[in-house]
Amino acid sequence: MRKNGLVILLLVSAMLSLTTPAKASTLLRIDVSGTSLTCDNSTAPGVTACTAAGFTTALGGNAMTFTGTINGVSFGGGGITGVQLFGNSPGTPALAFVLDSATAVSNLSGAMRLVTLDFAGNNFTLPVGTGFLSAAQTANWTMSANGDSQAFTAWQRNDNALVIPGAGVGGTTAVSPVCVSPGGLAQSCASETLNVPAGPVAPYSLTGRQVINMSPGSIASYTGTSVLTAEQIPVQTPEPGSVLLLGAGLLLLAGRQRLARKN
Known about the structure:
By secondary structure, this protein is of the alpha+beta class. The protein has one domain (2-262). Helices cover 19% and strands 47% of the residues. It has three helices and 16 strands. It is globular and about 50 Å long.
């Protein structure tokens, strides 16, 4: 139930973000066994460099995408966006998140490849005070070998930096259990951390790192989500005396309504 509620909150927050001006900066770095491309949209020259490297984004935007091939690993193609990064900065009273998805990732190199996806979003102002950080991931292998895997770590940084990895001073770290394929066709995995207590101070950033091992010929899709949720206020259970008084009041009201109808 907690996962379903989290998905609903993410979708609602995403829709709200689409109707408000973006107020964040976003970073995405894709490294394939030592060959990397980086996009940082916090400056106009940065956006120009992003476009030259094959990314699509806007200055100070919450979103960016990439489709292409890096060191023998293909991300998307054929009308499918390879890597999508999206956040909801400045956040809502309920949650803040940055979500990375890598779709139709194919290792065409003929050798093992280590894929590292680093991402970050900053200028979050909500929620603040006390809350919980969670790292969630999914891995869906269309074709894989035994040992193909994905590890995911999320950080909340009170220094508001677009720096990966690390939590900075006073930040929080959450590590999701590793997803490992047994090999073969149509394998899947989903994992997330328990809630890790956090103390976000505005403005802050959320970052994440996916570390993916891909065997030759493997095809898969992956997600990694860094989520900060507000501390929930417990619902007070009425005392027995209060319940009796409420019941008596309802009965009295019902009796008066019946008398009124008779008159």
